[in-house]
Amino acid sequence: MAGLVHKSFNAPEEVRPFEQGTGQLEVLHVKDKELGRATFQPGWQWSKHVKPIAKTESCQAAHAGYVVSGRLKVQMDDGEEDEVGPGDIVDIQPGHDAWVVGQEPCVMIDWQGYEGYAKR
Known about the structure:
This protein has helices spanning 46-49, 51-54; strands at residues 14-17, 23-30, 33-40, 63-69, 71-76, 81-84, 89-92, 96-101, 106-110. The mean pLDDT is 92. It is built from 2 helices and 9 strands; from the N terminus they run βββααββββββ.
């Protein structure tokens, strides 16, 4: 196995579009993990644009990520909620909804929760 792996989101190995043109997930495969850069367009909401793909009531992926730009509101199934923005690190457990806040796309890098995310 190589001691150095170099990949770029400028050349993703896989692109998974969300419903109704509301964004996409760009995927890189590094060792046994899928790392992702998600771009959520204004108006995107998990329960509207990924739920039809995932076929679960709420997002069941755990996310560990970094918000590059834009703002995202996250609401857990138990009602706990928070809003994240540029420079924030997030650890989001399974059982949540999320949506873009404002008119700027939200870009997020995730090194945990995009394994199979929005995969048809």
